[in-house]
Amino acid sequence: MIFLSHNYKDKPIVEPIASKLSTVYGMDKVFYDGWSIQPGDGIIDKMNDGLEQCKFFFFFVSKNSLASNMVKLEWQNAIYKATQNKAKLIPIKLDDCLMPAILMQTLYIDIFGKGFEFGLRQIVDVINNKNTFVQEEQTYENVRGFILPTSKDTELHLEVRAEIYVEPISKYILLTENQEDEVEGKCTNEALLQQVFMKDVTAGDNYKCNGIFFDIVRPTTPGFPIRFIIKSKTEIPLKFIGIMRATGENTIRRVPIIILE
Fold it and tell me: What domains can you pick out in the chain, each with its CATH number?
């Protein structure tokens, strides 16, 4: 059993991972509250069953999850199982939170710094007992994406910021697993040259999803963030994957994502 421990505020990132894992390993092998706990079920009993059966406990570490008493109970129980070699505890860092001291000795998966696709690949490698090392070009990321606080579960407010220097190209893709009739997006503070929904965007090795492409008129400049809203048109959950940006005529790359409170 694969147990995904998270706070509900982080579902826009966690749910696409849960969906991918259920496709690979089967929904019955992935404990995710979205489908593992149904109306009328005892929440504590179901969570206890999931914890007892789990072999891989993925703890999505964020400011949200660290503030949750329920999530705290889950990962502290997982630590006990790990000390008895009954389960493997793997932290997954989602934002710039401080890792709990007791987890500092555990190597974590860094979605915050490496991006969604990189993290998903490492999760699958851990489950398949493969070496998770991937040789990467070491570069500085001047452009970063930020998920802003919002009270609405059906939409995300995003900012793209240049940290140090001006980026002359302001072409961005908001990645999603939703279909065109399920989701909409807009840039709220800038003039656009173009906006279009894209299908089958290559977002990583052997991974494709959909996206909303924005071609912004001005450069991305430090101190002047570009703001977006992406929201669901229906009751289907929003499945936001991340942000990509154009770095040249035929090259795009992932933008690191930071979740703000």
Answer: 2-127 (3.40.50.10140), 143-259 (2.60.40)
Share of the chain residues as helix, strand and coil, in percent rounded to the nearest 5: 30, 35, 35
What residues have CB less than 8 Å from 101, skipping those under 6 apart?
Answer: none
Instruction: Identify the CA nearest to 21 among candidates 127, 108, 132, 118.
Output: 127
121 φ, ψ to 5°? Answer: -65, -40
φ and ψ at 260, to 5 degrees? -100, 150
Task: Tell how strand 109-110 and strand 192-204 pair up.
Answer: unpaired
Q: Render pLDDT for 10-29 as a digit per residue (tens, 0 to 9).
A: 888 899 999 899 898 988 88
Residues 6+ positions from 261 with CB-CB distance below 8 Å: 63, 64, 149
Q: Cα 231 vs. chain centroid, distance in angstroms?
A: 16
Extended strands (E) in the chain: 2-5, 30-31, 56-61, 88-93, 109-110, 143-148, 155-162, 171-176, 183-187, 192-204, 207-216, 226-232, 240-246, 252-255, 257-259
* Per-residue pLDDT reduced to its tens digit, 164-204: 888 999 999 999 999 999 999 999 999 999 999 999 998 87
Q: Which two tokens stand for residue 183?
A: 């989701």
